[in-house]
Amino acid sequence: MTPGRGVFIGQRKDRLGARLLMMLTCIRLAEDFDTDYRVNWFPQGADAPELDTPHELFATEWMAAHFLEGRAYDELAADAVPVWSFQGDKTPDRLRDHLAAGRSVIVEEGFEVLAFPWEDIESIRPRYRDFIHRIGFAPPIRAVMDQADARLSGKGVSAYHIRRGDILNGLPWKHTTWPAKIEPEELYDAHLDKSRGQTAIMFSDQPELIARFQQRHPKLIQMADIADLSGMTRAQRDFLELYTMSRAERVIAPFISAFSMAAARISGQQRLVFRDVLSEDEIARANERVIQRVAQGPSAFLNPSEAAHVYAKASQYLCAQDRCQEAYDLAQPILDAGADNAFLPLLQALNAFYLGKWKESEHLARTGLENPNLWPEDRAVLCALRGAILGARKKRWAAGLRFAKAFWAKPLRPDVVVLGSRMLYRDQLPFRLFPPVDWALQRRLRQRRFAPFNNLYLVQHKVIARQPCNFDMVLLDWADLSLDQRARRLPESPARLAALEAAVRASEDLSEDDPAVQSLISTLHRHTGEVSLSAAIDVARKVVAACPDAPLYHKRLAELYADAGDAGAARLSMADALACDPDNAFLVFATGQLLIRLGAKRQGEQQILNAAELDEVTAAIQGAAGRIHLRRGNKPQARRFLERAVALCPTYSRFSNQLRRVDG
Hints:
664 residues, mainly alpha, 4 domains, 4-stranded parallel sheet, 3-stranded parallel sheet, 57% helix, TPR-like_helical_dom_sf
């Protein structure tokens, strides 16, 4: 290393696996760019208390050479830049010049092997396996690492990670499903049977599971067969298990597991999931064995909670094969055994829904919504499901009320989109409960079906035959009504905006001369910068002239005028929108927002308060009114609106926190 060169500074705020990978990345970069590296082990906001004593892991002299103290870090970081700022470069020249000038680079990447566009990642990846030996570990740690190397390295070993732990027993984790983290034992058995004769080692946060596997597979080893870690701290045990896993030939684990992912990265290879190592037929046979075990009842599992989590996977396979009655029958013994997982009534409500048991499905959904442990995403699904049930029972207004709660809470949740699409296609949504939207156009805007199993509870073909709607068209104009931050970021998402335009282009029965299409495309292009503000205003004027009774188009024109700084024209256009439907709570709310934006704060806030009196389904409107009264010191009025907001969306903590301020 040349004196005076900048260094790579690694830092992570989270757990051990990500920190180790960050350090290995720094070692690699320092070697390839002829410099050194440092580690900021205590970055501001770190949330891994088990790592607060790094001397448990690292040798004192190595820490002295590579760890940064506060003042040294401040000096190096003063003119440092993040490593990702060089990811768009086509050559290493700018990075080399930066380091040569004595400026450092911050490295926070902790889950992927880092490679620049001019590098070959596949030639870099295998080097990580040896980099870990350049870290100065404490002698007791190094001794166990040597034992692991002697037992596993170069022996063709398969390492398995089976995730349970806090998912089964911890709060709040046990109360929602983790399909990408929990894999049934039968899949592990299938690969162990397929690889008989080869050495295999299993890691799990549930020791009882390893013991159960060893009964079926006597040659299977665990960490205790390599070294006794009972006297070590949590950080030491975690690292040594992770390191030992990384010495295996292959790491097989659930789709999402930071622990096994880090082990695979440290080993210089890609972690494998079961679809990588088992055929479709082998997976199908394993799933049938899962179903057979669930049919034995909760006694076949560690506890009722594990039975519930594994059942969650089995039920989707069953329903995908139109075996819904079987899925329905298998759930009841788990409920009877006392499984209190908040998601279980949701799954049974879905089974009843598929079977046309409308009253029972609604009862289960209503009961499920009363569970205080329900996760926000699951609450939204249950609200949408209850809406679909009520829609099927011809209770259209009640159906719309429930779906509105679901949509404004989690409009991007796939289950909510699929159930909402069903209700829209079947004319079960009373549009009066929603803001002005071109519903005829909305019905035609489709998106691809969601990937099955991992990101939704529903089996889509049991709910709708067509592709689901793309409800981003609603959010394009009304994102402020959503409580979900990702949904609100639609204008900043080129991919979602492009998908919405593609949905318009894909609809063969839509004409480019249709004012609704012209308005939507112009609005999309305005967000993406493909049309100028003046051109967008011209299109909006033409659309308003063609559709003078459609408040949505007046609203869009008003917002364009506001963008252009024409407050008078913006006010007039919004007044035209409101004149189309004077008592529409959403238009009154939008009027208030526009007035505040134009500098008429008091007048705008009054309109928002008026909107809250008219509205009965939108937590965002009720919460906005509550905050206005809270700022003004009107505590009784603030409480009234914030209590409404909490009732509409109990899982949204912001409203609950504001309500506590009222009483504080």
